[in-house]
Amino acid sequence: MPAKILLVTGDAAESLEVLYPLQRLREEGYEVHVAAPTRKTLRFVVHDFEEGFDTYTEKPGYTWPADLAFSEVDPGQYAALVIPGGRAPEYLRNDPELRKILKAFFDADKPVAQICHGPLLTAAIGGLGGRRVTAYPALEPDMQSAGADFQDAEVVVDGTLVSSRAWPDHPAWMREFLAVLRAKA
Prior knowledge:
Pfam families: DJ-1_PfpI. The protein is α/β, with parallel strands linked by helices. 31% of the residues lie in helices and 27% in strands. It has a seven-stranded mixed beta sheet with strand order 5-2-1-6-7-11-10, with helices on both faces. A two-stranded antiparallel sheet has the order 3-4. It is globular and about 50 Å long.
């Protein structure tokens, strides 16, 4: 029976940051479940970098069904957690059910992959204090305020926590996360 991995997300998550790890982990034989505030079809976005813009642009992206609501998740059934970015983490960090899930993974020192704005969730539960992380570069002050040692690198591994800046870093992010999974899960 394959190990189960939980991916937590919501509307306005970055399409590539949800679908790439979902498909890559399934390709490796893991059973991946998508959890969101409610069971529904989620609407993702596409963030891209365009000449002349000071920041990324946002366009409508793909849709994907949530397998579970956060209230239905039993963290003990999962070997690891994936936290995509996009705008979803901005509001998801306020969800008390999700904060319980995140805390359970960190308390058990299970593998966690986070990318882009995903570390806003782990910061919300105090999970970054004293840890080395990366995130979307504009989040450097947020990561430092959360007590993390921010590093502007394509991937940072700190124990079982694997973080990356954004979707251009996917190959390094999943390569390192899979190495942690193979060793720990």
